[in-house]
Model the fold of this input.
Amino acid sequence: MTFIVWDDLYETGIASIDEQHKHLVSLLNRMLEALNQKKGGEEISYVIGEMAKYSEYHFSTEEELMLKAEYPDVGEHQIFHHAFTSKVVDYQHKLAARDDNLTAEVTIYLTNWLNDHLSTIDQKYVPYMKKAGIT
Ligand SMILES: [Fe+2]
Done:
């Protein structure tokens, strides 16, 4: 299981967003570590619970800034966020029972989603935020 290393591709240049993205990546790495070390289901449930809470908080920050920047595709972007949130909540329920295969599936999903979202989807609003003076 590989850990996610912060990459320049993830950088938006907007301080609050980059800081929150780094926290999401660190939660994901904690999840990978729990899986690697075969820690109990308790740690995994805790981390996925934190992921659910923190991603909700982060998405609202991002959506607020997109609206402020008059980013035209905010609706489409919100669909990506909703998909992630509902998947995490769903996994959170399923992970109440310890299941290593499911934990692996969850971490693969989270890794792929975050990698793609941070390096591609989030980058689309950057020019709008910069133009609106959000730094
Ligand atoms: Fe986003």
User: Anything to note?
Assistant: The radius of gyration is 15 Å. The CA atoms of residues 30 and 129 lie 31 Å apart.
